[in-house]
Design brief:
Number of helices: 2
Shape: rod-shaped
Strand content: under 5%
Structural class: mainly alpha
Largest sheet: none
């Protein structure tokens, strides 16, 4: 009977020990784990940031605004 109490107390102690490490890591490194929605949102915002630069570059070439000499 006392062995059973010792096993359960060790198990409960282990769970609290690991939970304290998890909470400590979560406080110290909050950016380490991101949800799937955050990753999709960040990917979309990065994509939207880069699209106008590509569009501007392609438009400047198509409209002849590059540094080519203009013949009058």
């Amino acid at each position: 009977m006392s062995a059973l109490i010792i096993v359960f107390s060790l198990l409960i102690g282990y769970v609290f020990f690991m939970m304290s490490f998890y909470l400590l890591a979560k406080v110290l490194f909050p950016k380490m784990e991101q949800s799937q929605e955050e990753e999709v949102f960040l990917a979309k915002t990065e994509m939207h940031k880069h699209v106008p630069a590509r569009v501007k570059r392609s438009q400047s070439k198509s409209f002849g605004l590059s540094k080519q000499p203009q013949v009058a």
